[in-house]
From TrEMBL, chain B:
InterPro entries: DUF1468. Signal peptide: none annotated. This is Tripartite tricarboxylate transporter TctB family protein. Keywords: Membrane, Transmembrane, Transmembrane helix. Residues 6-136 form the DUF1468 domain.
UniProtKB/TrEMBL annotation, chain C:
It comes from Rhodovarius crocodyli. This is Tripartite tricarboxylate transporter substrate binding protein. Residues 1-23 form the signal peptide. Belongs to the UPF0065 (bug) family. Gene3D superfamilies: Bordetella uptake gene, domain 1, Periplasmic binding protein-like II. Keywords: Signal.
């Protein structure tokens, strides 16, 4: 304990030099901006910044402080367009649209932005604390999580899918299955055969999440809006904007639960921020069954996924720093950055390069305070986005989305695919099909199949292997409970 | 009612094509006990059941389109953008797209043209210059 | 003036001094490096870092910009240059050993090793065979004996599909043990990090990774490395790990990284690019920059390299047929 604190103190000595504070600030600003841009994610941004760090001959700890700030800063940016425009800037912000956008329509966009900013801060900061003191044992638990455990975890997440809808079961489940089918397009990693590519080379690598999300959300939304030109529905700027202390207290339990869920899931190398935000939103909705107005603008429906998203992002750094194992594509690039400084990421990093490891951890305390300080005063500025005339805002948003897709892929095919998904997104809205299950199916479906096949390959086909560990048994019990809970509620209602 | 029926039929059709396609996969050798077929076939069957339920028991009406001409025009503009990006270049294509969308959102022509030019130039600077992601120059002598 | 520079160029011909216009008078204009990956992918790093050094050292008089072209695991890029930029002198494309495997397995459509001009390699990473710290296997022969006892009894896991580089590395070991690689119990993971986690967690027993990505775990003695798949021992932390050859097993797996040009790239341009890579390899700053990319020395350019690339692809094609990844044609 004392040892950890003194090491952390050493880290703060690194993180609190004016130069490194400035770098963290730059990283936070860039990260927030990247989070807002729909086509470009933190992975891309870090890759683009890396050559600059090398060219400027930044010392390794400074480079890592900058790049990591871009990474966790992006978690603050993705929510802005999700809440105000119903267009998530990052995959993990998809769930935020469910309650965030209705709040914005009710003229409470500013309050939704504020609660999500505070949630992000709480989730990230508590996770950094957990990381400071429990990094090594947590990483050990993370590697012990087997493919069979992942199967149970994903099944649990999918079992909560019904909680998202607010529409009839065939629609919610049909939409989820449709999302899963989209995710299966491409080369199957188990056997190397091509599935559902129908001879198209572009489809070999599968459908890019960005293309799907921009189509379904951004283009679909704008097609819906263009029908009525400018129904000034969201422009109630002014009265009732501010977040009240009462609302904040009301959201605190949700934030605590979401921090736990998000951090634990983030630590697992095979899951990620999208799973974390989906699980915490749906769990929150199930826990508060019958109380609250989830789907129509509940503050907790914004706080939960945003808190979990940032907690998971920090959690993802645990296996990276303590074992040298990247938990996601973005952390893999961060690890690559260390390699470029001739630092070997691995279990000895804390011993060999304490200034890098502890400097980074300390900088995350600083960075998240900076992000909160940056974001809260800007809430009003962001919310004013809605007072921009539609004939300026939507051409800009659409062109920005397309530019992001094209710049990262140089593929007109991807542009056309996003238009196709845009038309689907528009039709689905007109038919009252929820979009979130499609996205969750897309993210979770592939993970479910991959882990199911891994688990069965490891057990040589024995299905019993799926329920061997205590973790998986516990998760399966929760899954069955989640599926039966609505029936139980209906039964009780029928009796009463 | 017709909307749910159509949607249900769509689900059934997508599910049928997917199931058929997955069923006919030729696997060079069985690398894992499950293989690439059972999971997609199962999901496709659930999709078809959901579709079937919607056909039998439709509940929702297709929401009427208010300005019937606008969405198709916007789709045409976006497809034209995708096809013109490489021959015309990023800035002209983006300007044309932004012009069309601004007009569809009720802007007057001069205002729309200003929006178009500013959008195109800003995005060019952002992506090509700041982010260093090259975009097609096309017809412009840059 | 015009004539003087021609004479100057002619006299400079045998030396090709740095910074000067090369002999045939080719100077790249707005050159581009196509990375068949999104920003942050392996090819993207190859392009961005290498072109930066080319410019800093003055080997290239102009900046070379990186263009990302993911899609179809590299298929889209090779199709694009064959369809639209067949004779473009100003474009090069990053590739790796994985591209050769994809060509061999027909995953790039109708395009193969003869549809590009191979410029050169900038370096190579090498395959390694890892097991957990407490594994019963202590060397490659132990593992091969294990395969002989029951090839399906040892779970192997890595990133990449059946038929990918990681799969092929261990398939070669199984084949050297006289076993059918198709019977291996291979479990694909989402990236090398997830596979390493599965190894440390004891879910898989063997992880055929790359030398640059496992150094940290090896240094901490969390894992044992049974063999490096390189012609000679690797420098640095891995110097005490024997090669497969030392253990009597003739397997090498260099993950070569480098560039190719379009199929009809003019000779003058091709010579310029080959020369640029050769000079890069000879540059005193390059070794450090190459190490930063996790690459070991692997210097081969021009015709020699072209022959090497074609031989490798043919070899992999035969291997794919032998083990039944693609139906024999």
């Amino acid at each position: 304990m004392m040892e950890t604190l003194s090491a952390l103190g050493g880290g703060f000595a690194v993180a609190l030099t004016p130069f490194n504070i400035m770098l963290a600030l730059v990283g936070c600003i860039v990260g927030t901006a990247i989070g807002v841009l729909p086509g470009i994610g933190p992975l891309n941004a870090i890759a683009l910044l890396l050559p600059f760090c090398l060219a400027l001959r930044l010392p390794p700890e400074s480079a890592l402080i900058l790049l990591a700030a871009v990474y966790y800063g992006s978690g603050y940016g993705g929510r802005i367009t999700a809440i105000l425009l119903n267009m998530p800037g990052e995959p993990s912000a998809v769930l935020t649209t469910l309650d965030g956008h209705p709040l914005a329509k009710q003229g409470r966009g500013g309050a939704a932005l504020a609660i999500s900013g505070i949630g992000s801060f709480v989730g990230a900061t508590l996770s950094v604390v957990a990381m400071t003191f429990m990094s090594v044992p947590l990483a050990k638990i993370a590697v012990a999580f087997s493919p069979a455990d992942y199967v149970a975890l994903i099944a649990f997440a999918l079992s909560l899918l019904g909680a998202v809808g607010g529409v009839s079961a065939p629609k919610a489940w049909g939409a989820g299955c449709f999302g899963i089918m989209l995710a299966l397009i491409g080369v199957d990693s188990g056997t190397g055969v091509e599935r559902f590519t129908f001879g198209s080379l572009e489809m070999l690598g599968g459908i890019d999440f960005t293309v799907l999300a921009i189509g379904l959300f951004a283009i679909g939304e704008i097609l819906l809006l263009v029908e009525t030109t400018m129904r000034a529905e969201a422009a109630k700027i002014g009265g009732g904007q501010r977040l009240t202390a009462k609302e904040l207290v009301f959201c605190l339990p949700a934030m605590m639960r979401a921090t736990g869920i998000g951090f634990v899931i983030g630590v697992l190398p095979g899951a990620g921020a999208s799973v974390a935000s989906a699980l915490s939103y749906t769990a929150e909705k199930r826990i508060n069954e019958g109380n609250g107005k989830f789907g129509q603008g509940d503050m907790r429906g914004v706080a939960a996924p945003e808190t979990a998203d940032n907690a998971a992002q920090i959690g993802n750094l645990v296996p990276m720093l303590s074992l040298g194992i990247p938990g996601s594509g973005t952390t893999a690039v961060l690890l690559g950055a260390l390699l470029m400084y001739n630092i070997t990421p691995g279990p000895l990093l804390f011993e060999q390069k304490p200034e890098v490891a502890w400097g980074l951890i300390a900088s995350m305390y600083v960075g998240n305070v900076l992000l909160l300080a940056l974001n809260l005063p800007l809430v009003g500025v962001f919310a004013r986005l809605l007072s921009v005339p539609a004939s300026v805002l939507y051409p800009g948003v659409l062109a920005l989305s397309f530019a992001g897709v094209y710049a990262a892929s140089n593929s007109a095919f991807d542009l056309i695919m996003s238009v196709v998904f845009g038309v689907l997104g528009w039709l689905f809205r007109k038919m009252d099909i929820p979009l979130v299950p499609i996205v969750l199916g897309f993210v979770l479906g592939r993970m479910l199949e991959d882990n199911l096949r891994r688990a069965l390959a490891l057990s040589d086909g024995a299905v019993s292997a799926l329920v061997e560990s205590p973790v998986s048994i516990g998760l399966w019990v929760l899954t069955v409970g989640a599926l039966l809970w609505p029936l139980f509620l209906a039964f009780r209602k029928g009796r009463a | 009612m017709i909307a749910d029926r159509l949607l249900g039929l769509g689900f059934v059709l997508v599910g049928a094509v997917a199931a058929w396609s997955a069923w006919n996969l030729v696997v060079p050798f069985a690398a894992d006990p499950l293989g690439p077929t059972p999971f997609p076939v199962t999901v496709a069957l659930i999709l078809m059941v959901c579709g079937g339920l919607l056909v039998i028991n439709p509940t929702h009406r297709f929401e009427p389109i208010e300005r019937k001409f606008a969405p198709p025009l916007m789709v045409v503009a976006m497809l034209a953008y995708a096809l013109l990006m490489e021959p015309l270049g990023f800035m002209p294509a983006t300007a044309l797209l932004a012009l069309a969308i601004a007009l569809l959102f009720g802007a007057r022509i001069l205002f729309a043209a200003a929006v178009a030019v500013i959008t195109a130039v800003t995005l060019w600077v952002l992506f090509d210059k700041i982010l260093d992601l090259p975009l097609p120059k096309g017809i412009l002598p840059l | 003036m015009q004539r003087r520079s021609v004479i100057a160029a002619a006299t400079a011909l045998p030396f090709s001094a740095p910074g000067l216009v090369s002999a045939q008078g080719f100077t790249p204009q707005n050159p581009e490096c196509i990375a068949p990956a999104a920003p942050g992918g392996g090819f993207d790093i190859t392009c961005r870092l290498t072109t930066r050094v080319l410019q800093e050292t003055g080997i290239s008089p102009v900046p070379i910009r990186t263009q990302n072209m993911p899609g179809g695991i590299g298929a889209v890029a090779i199709n694009n240059i064959n369809a639209q930029r067949r004779s473009d002198p100003n474009v090069i494309v990053a590739f790796s050993t994985g591209s050769w495997l994809n060509m061999a397995q027909g995953r790039f459509g109708r395009f193969g090793e003869n549809d590009v001009r191979w410029i050169g390699a900038i370096g190579a990473d090498y395959g390694v065979i890892c097991v957990k710290r407490d594994s019963p296997f202590n060397n490659l022969q132990d593992l091969m004996n294990g395969f002989r006892q029951n090839v399906a009894g040892i779970p192997v896991g890595s990133s990449g599909a059946v038929g990918s580089q990681d799969w092929t590395k261990v398939a070669l070991v199984a084949r050297a043990a006289g076993q059918d690689p198709r019977r291996m119990r291979y479990v694909p993971f989402e990236g090398g990090g997830a596979a390493m986690a599965a190894l440390l967690g004891g879910h898989i027993q063997v992880f055929p990774g790359d030398a640059s990505e496992i150094r940290g775990q090896y240094e901490a003695r969390e894992i044992k490395i049974l063999a490096v798949l390189s012609p000679n021992r690797l420098p640095g932390v891995l110097a005490d790990v024997p090669t497969a050859k030392e253990q009597g097993v003739n397997i090498e797996w260099p993950i070569v990284r480098g560039f190719y040009g379009p199929p009809q790239m003019p000779d003058a341009a091709y010579t310029w690019w080959v020369d640029a890579i050769r000079r890069l390899q000879a540059h005193p700053n390059w070794a450090e920059q190459r190490n930063a990319q996790g690459l070991f020395e692997f210097n081969m350019v021009g015709e020699e390299f072209s022959a090497f690339a074609k031989a490798r692809t043919a070899e992999y094609r035969q291997l794919a047929r032998d083990v039944g990844i693609v139906p024999a044609q």
